[in-house]
Amino acid sequence: MKTAAAVLVLAAVPWTDSPLRRLAGGEGDGRDPAFDVALNPAPLRDLCDAKIRTYYVDAHTETPLAQGNAKAAGQLYLACGVPVQDPRRADTTLRFHAGHFQVLHRID
Amino acid sequence: MSLVAGVLAVNVAYLAVGYALVGRARRRASWAGVALLLGAGTVATLVFFAAIAGLHASLAVATLVAAGLVVLGLVGLRTSEQRTSPAARVRPFAAAVFGVVGAICALGLVGGFRSSPWLDDAWGIWLPKGLALWHHGLDERLFVPNGQFVAFGVPDYPLWWSAVTSLDVQAVGHIDVRVMCAQVALLTVAFVSAVARLLWGYVRPSVLAGGLLLLVLCSELWRHVQGGVADLPLAIYVALFALGLVVWIETEEAFALLVAGVSGVTAVQIKTEGIAEVLIVAAVAAIAALPRGRLRGLGLVTAVVAASALPWLLWRWAHDVPSRTPLADTFEFGNAGRAADAAGELAGRLLDPLSWLVVVPLLVALGLAGYLRDRRIEWLFPTLGLAAGFAFLVWAYWTNPDPIDYLLTTSAYRTIDPLVLSAAVFVPLQAEYLLRR
Q1: Contact at CB, A72 and B177, closer than 8 angstroms
Q2: Is the CB of B134 less than 8 angstroms away from the CB of A68?
Q3: Which of A3, A33, A83 sits opposite B149 (nearest CB)?
Q4: Across the interface, do A77 and B150 touch by the CB < 8 Å criterion?
Q5: Which of B64, B116, B153, B244 is the right S-S partner for B259, CB 3.0 to 4.6 Å?
């Protein structure tokens, strides 16, 4: 018990980036993913409450990496809906540009 | 529910199922790690199978599955009563080392709950697949590449890890990707506890404590916990499969076969390489079991594990989802340079002391030391298993169609996890045998 307590006390010492602090999660992360690009998923969080069925994410102006992150964000936060490849088949269309999502079109 | 409450609620259910399965004599705190791993393995495997059968991977389905397993465990399943383990006196030094192991695990658990996975595959593929299984079931619009819908990547991967993390999110009540690291952390700590429990009485406490300390001091272990990587749960169940088989060969205890069976079945449902890795373990175990005439139980468990791959393989076959490593490419010897690149990278990762300390070289050294002393080939069986697993990974990289540099950079550091954790399980066993004989 003494050795366990010693390790836990060492972890509490506020050294910057000590291995034990890293082990305990460092400064801690939020609930959203660590996206590879600037991406604010907040507008997506409530869309499932609006019962979307099909959606399309338009990110054609972005880099391939940003497009991939936008696609993954859609599949993560809009799992209630089904992503389509043709915007004409979507009841909800989103535009992703410069890190932000915007709902362009919605058919209720 | 909060992140902590939601994830813990799901895992308490796994624990309850596990305790029902382990038998009355093992319903004690020291068996919690084994129980959690058995519970998570069985519940999520059956939820995945239910999704293949057309149901949604929801908490309701998981609750029904868990209830059924509890009834089966309490009423129907008759696992053997626990053998009386040889008395193990824990000296102060060993107790102190166990204390350090416990404290590191506690910190690792805290770190898991506070970390968002750094691996983009975790939040970009594994969890979204699980959420789709919840909302839509195993809908071919999402799980089979097509021209109309945006399907998921790596469609040939089985979905146990997706189901597990989806259940966590459902219990939490909103998208919180930290559930992935929290769940891996719980499974990892349960694994350390399970190894301690299963080897207790067979390996002296000081050696056991030292072996576990070596594992939990590996920075790469906890980095993978905080990455939410599926390779770590796979490694945990492959290593537990190996340990279960070893305990079976040593003791002929039916409970060890249950541990091996559940672990092997679970490993097969986590990643495509799981089936090959458990079959390699089973093959090496069969060589070890042959002189003792214990092939029957081993063969039975291996058959069950292999058969458990069928539901997913049949679904893939029915929906024309091919493997990304076609067998036909096995004989493309023009690509032999890929094998050399893969072997070099994998060996470097396995032997990197900054990642996995000396886990793998120590196991090899212990085996060689025992062999040189006794001239008995069984000392080398764990090393043989490692070599076979290594050769399999080299083959997998050789035949994969993706560019080799990209492939190795993005995955070699984690595809070796099953080799490392299996080695870590055998280090205390080999050290004990070396001291004992």
Answers
A1: no
A2: no
A3: A83
A4: no
A5: B244
Name every chain A residue with its beta carbon within 8 A of the beta carbon of B137: none
Shortest Cα distance from B23 to chain A (angstroms)? 30
* Contact: A82, B219; criterion CB under 8 Å: no
Q: Mark yes or no for CB contact B100/A84 under 8 Å.
A: no
Beta bridge partners of A94: A57, A103
| Minimal C-alpha gap between A7 and chain B (Å) | 6
- Spell out the domain ranges in chain B: 3-77+102-436
DSSP string covering A39-100, please? -B-HHHHTGGGGT--EEEEE-TTS-HHHHHHHHHHHHHH-TTSEEBSSGGG-SEEEEEETTE
Task: Give yes or no: residues A41 and A81 share one domain.
Answer: yes
For residue B177, how far is the Cα from the chain centroid?
21
Shared-domain flag, residues A58 and A100: yes
State pLDDT tens for residues B192-230.
Answer: 999 999 999 899 999 999 999 999 999 999 999 999 999
DSSP 8-state symbol, A106: E
Contact B175 A80 (CB under 8 A): no
pTM for this predicted structure: 0.95
State the complex-level ipTM.
0.93
The answer on A62 and A17 residing in a single domain is no
In this structure, are A26 and A60 located in the same domain? no
Chain A positions touching B112 (Cβ under 8 A) are 25
Q: Write the pLDDT tens digit of every residue in B56-113.
A: 999 999 999 999 999 999 987 666 555 555 556 888 899 999 999 999 999 999 999 9
- Domain residues for the domain of A7 are 1-30
For chain A, the domain total comes to: 2
A14 and A65 belong to one structural domain: no
Instruction: Quote the CA–CA distance of B432 and B435 in Å, as a whole number.
Output: 5
Question: Residue B182 to residues A106, B76, B179: CA-CA distances in angstroms?
Answer: 36, 33, 5
Q: Which of B103, B125, B147 sits opposite A85 (nearest CB)?
A: B147
Contact B3 A34 (CB under 8 A): no
Interatomic CA distance for residues B156 and B321, integer angstroms: 6
**Are A14 and A66 found together in one domain?**
no
Q: Do B120 and A72 touch (CB under 8 A)?
A: yes
Tell me the residues of A at the B interface, defined by beta carbons under 8 Å apart.
1-8, 11, 19-20, 22-26, 28-34, 36, 45, 68-69, 71-72, 74-77, 79-80, 82-86, 89
